[in-house]
Amino acid sequence: MLIHRGLDDLQPLPSAVVTSGTFDGVHRGHQTILARLTEVARSSGGESVLITYWPHPRTVLSNDSMDLKLLTTLDEKIDLLEQAGVDHLVVIPFTRAFSELSSAEYIQQVLIDKIGTRKLVIGYDHRFGRDREGGFDYIQAHQYEYGFEVEEIPRQDIEAVGVSSSRIRAALEAGHIDIANRLLGRPYSLSGTVVKGRQLGRTIGFPTANLQVDDPVKLIPANGVYAVDVLYAGQKFSGMLNIGFRPTVAGTHQTIETYIFDFDKDIYGEHLTLQFRAFLRPEQKFDGLSALVSQLKQDEAAARTILI
């Protein structure tokens, strides 16, 4: 997949089949659109092009932008779109000035002049241009004038999947990992760097890797204990993860700590990816370390059973 960061150096393609959107999560609904995009490109001998925006438009335009947490960082989204078989990814820096383009200006300046669109594939509710004024009906009415075709993914094809980014965010914030993973079509993941914590885990037989997440806009699931797969240095390990404030040991801030099973390496400063497989229990305060250790042993047994 070729990645084009911005429009300045982009040359029109001879036969571009295009879609656009934020595609946060690249979930099963998005995957329906991507499957049709790549199918049309292959059958017509063209190249598939996906236009996305970074930062997320809501972080630029909305008053609640500080509350918005994303399912995928830009790097994660790039990896997922490449796996989906997209030929070209165009990442447009989203600014207030860009948001002021009318639908006609967006079509002419971006779709036609910069990309050379021959066919546009969009979801049934996709909107674009200033105040979301443009959509399928507008393009269809002007497609011969603009010189490209437009195809809308039927409403029933999208709704049959029953998925939206906001529904996945709500599931994760409630600790419903099973629902989120089903809607995503894969395990939800967090990536980051292992940093030093208070190192209390090793004193009770459960040394943990304390993760500092790569991007502050990434959504952190609900506090609690999870069974996770741990990807490190090209290998997959099993583990259990605690997200929370560690009330038993008087923690003062949220941490993301993973006990990696059958693992004994110093990995401070190394990069890890955690894939969420199951929610085990909420975070709770125990009467001392012995009660905590007893529960951790039960958590480990439950996680190992799930991750077999």
Short description:
This protein has 10 helices and 12 strands. With about 300 residues, it is an alpha/beta fold. The protein has 2 domains: about 1-165, HUPs (Rossmann fold, 3-Layer(aba) Sandwich), CATH 3.40.50; about 185-305, Riboflavin kinase-like (Elongation Factor Tu (Ef-tu), domain 3), CATH 2.40.30.
Outline the structure in words.
The protein has helices at residues 28-44, 57-61, 74-83, 96-99, 103-114, 136-146, 155-159, 165-173, 177-184, 289-307, and strands spanning 2-5, 16-20, 47-54, 88-93, 117-122, 149-152, 189-195, 209-213, 224-232, 235-244, 255-260, 271-281. With 308 residues, it is of the alpha/beta class. The chain folds into two domains: 2-163, HUPs (Rossmann fold), CATH 3.40.50; 187-307, Beta Barrel (Elongation Factor Tu (Ef-tu), domain 3), CATH 2.40.30. The strands form two sheets. A six-stranded parallel sheet has the order 1-4-3-2-5-6. The two termini are 34 Å apart.
Helix content: 25-40%
Measured distance between first and last alpha carbons: 34 Å
Q: What is the count of structural domains?
A: 2
Beta content comes to 25-35%
